[in-house]
């Protein structure tokens, strides 16, 4: 897989922070997802990680970003903001993103990749069909995945499921 030409070095830096948040989530007993919201100048507005371990499976960082943005930003600011995330939004988060009018989404790993990893590891499918963001929110601009960062995300998901996914062995 080659790098998408539309990802800048700043995009990759923001995505690396999302992957770090995903690792933090996994270390805390949650699923490995992390996201940040940046304004049109690249300033970070909000960051969060997955928090589903308590039983509320809507506690995705992308959903929290949508809630925060709806409460703290004008519609114009939301439209010019960018969400960076370790994994492509699920349908719930894609819909929330679109409903509050957030701008571009940049992801380190795609839903297609996550589905393929789960299939490879024989992990049962979740309760919601994984769909690309644009299948749920067709007017949202998206970019991703990133080769290097998606490999890091894969290792986090392997760890979540107790899979030895060390390519060195």
Polypeptide structure, described:
The model has no long low-confidence stretch (mean pLDDT 94). This protein has seven helices and five strands; from the N terminus they run αββααβαβααβα. The protein has a five-stranded mixed beta sheet, sandwiched between helices. The chain has 169 residues and is α/β, with parallel strands linked by helices. The longest helix is centred in the N-terminal third of the chain and has 19 residues, at 9-27.
Question: What fraction, in percent, of the residue positions are helical?
Answer: 40-55%
Low-confidence stretches: none
Strand content: 5-15%
Mean pLDDT: 94
The biggest beta sheet, please?
Answer: 5 strands, mixed
Question: Would you spell out the secondary-structure blueprint of this structure?
Answer:
Elements: H1 9-27, E1 34-38, E2 44-49, H2 61-72, H3 75-80, E3 82-87, H4 91-100, E4 105-109, H5 111-121, H6 133-136, E5 142-143, H7 147-160
Parallel strand pairs: 3-4, 4-5
Antiparallel strand pairs: 1-2, 1-3
Helix pairs in contact: 1-7, 2-4, 5-7
């Amino acid at each position: 897989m080659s790098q998408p030409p539309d990802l800048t070095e700043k995009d990759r830096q923001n995505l690396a922070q999302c992957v770090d948040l995903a690792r933090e989530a996994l270390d805390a007993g949650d699923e490995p997802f992390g996201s940040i919201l940046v304004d049109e100048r690249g300033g970070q507005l909000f960051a969060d990680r997955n928090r589903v371990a308590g039983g509320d499976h809507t506690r995705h960082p992308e959903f929290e970003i949508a809630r925060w943005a709806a409460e703290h930003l004008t519609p114009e600011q939301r439209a010019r903001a960018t969400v960076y995330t370790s994994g492509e939004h699920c349908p719930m988060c894609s819909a929330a993103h679109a409903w509050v009018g957030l701008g571009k989404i940049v992801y380190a790993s795609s839903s297609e990749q996550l589905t393929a990893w789960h299939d490879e590891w024989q992990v049962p499918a979740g309760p919601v069909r994984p769909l690309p963001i644009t299948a749920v929110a067709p007017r949202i601009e998206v970019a991703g995945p990133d080769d290097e960062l998606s490999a890091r995300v894969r290792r986090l998901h392997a760890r979540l499921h107790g899979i030895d996914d060390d390519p060195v062995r």
